[in-house]
Amino acid sequence: MSNQPNPEADEPESSNDNPHILIIDDDVEVTESIRQALIASGYSVSVALDGNQGLAYTEAKSPDLLILDIMMPRRSGFLVLERLRQNDSTPIPVIMITGNEGSRHREYAEMLGVNDYINKPFTMDRLLNSISDLLNQ
């Protein structure tokens, strides 16, 4: 498989039994950085470049964890999270990443049930530690 993000968000980048993480973000540079770090850390990774694609993939494949941007075309991260929390009896852990610094966004994400909220820019260690903590709960 190529090193480019998978715009169809179909099969994971790795075919192992390691946790499967779906990145839902329209920023290709951010997505590619995260994807490379996750693969290097042994995770299986898929990418969706908008909220509708990410929601459809999540409902079909049930990844182990989502990394979700807020501001995206077609469906925002808030709408994706709201839909997932309404329909999921066993919630998938969600880390929301955003360039929005306002506390109002964080409060709304927490009200919807986000597991972690990380402001961009962030260190990859911060993200990897959060993923590890959430998957090991």
| Rg, nearest Å | 13 Å
Order of helices and strands: EHEHEHEHEH
The total beta strand count reads 5
Mean pLDDT over all positions: 87
So how many helices?
5
CATH superfamily: Response regulator
Gross geometry: globular
CATH architecture: 3-Layer(aba) Sandwich
User: Level of helix content?
Assistant: 40-55%
- Main sheet: strands, sense, barrel: 5 strands, parallel
CATH class identity: Alpha Beta
User: Approximately how much beta-strand content do the residues carry?
Assistant: 15-25%
How many distinct folded domains?
Answer: 1
Head-to-tail CA distance between termini: 31 Å
Query: What do we call the CATH topology?
Result: Rossmann fold
Can you summarize this structure?
The protein has 137 residues and is an alpha/beta fold.
Give your account of this protein's structure.
- By secondary structure, the protein is of the alpha/beta class.
- It has a single domain (20-135), classed as 3-Layer(aba) Sandwich (Rossmann fold), CATH 3.40.50.
- 42% of the residues lie in helices and 18% in strands.
- It contains five helices and five strands.
- The chain has helices spanning 28-40, 51-61, 77-87, 103-112, 124-135; strands at residues 20-24, 44-48, 65-69, 94-98, 116-119.
- A five-stranded parallel sheet has the order 2-1-3-4-5, sandwiched between helices.
- β4 (94-98), α4 (103-112) and β5 (116-119) form a beta-alpha-beta unit.
- α2 (51-61) runs parallel beside α3 (77-87).
- The longest helix has 13 residues, at 28-40.
